[in-house]
Specification:
mainly alpha, 5 helices, about 60% helix, elongated
Length: about 100
């Protein structure tokens, strides 16, 4: 049994089409196109065609519905803490200079 299409409705698809016409970033275009494709095709099929998981397609739709195009952009991820202290980093910079 598939998930209900409460996230992907006609209004959301129309908004995605409008944004796709203005978009220049390829990742965002692909994500918007995936949302639009869900209007006619099952999410499972769309996920296979776009090479992502079903969950990704649902998340894109939900984030687009809540935040618009900004919700589809890549979010910064955490970074590892540096292995060198600030004093050690300064010493290396002096060595290189």
């Amino acid at each position: 049994m598939g998930r209900p299409k409460e996230v992907i409705d006609a209004q959301l698809v129309e908004r995605a089409r409008e944004e796709l016409g203005r978009m220049r970033e390829s990742k965002l275009c692909l994500r918007l196109q995936a949302i639009i494709s869900c209007e006619r095709y099952p999410v499972n099929g769309v996920a296979v065609v776009f090479g992502v998981s079903r969950r990704s397609v649902w998340q894109w739709a939900r984030r687009f519905k809540e935040q618009g195009v900004e919700g589809l952009r890549e979010r910064p991820r955490g970074h590892r803490p540096p292995k060198l202290s600030s004093d050690q980093l300064a010493a290396v910079e002096r060595w290189l200079a």
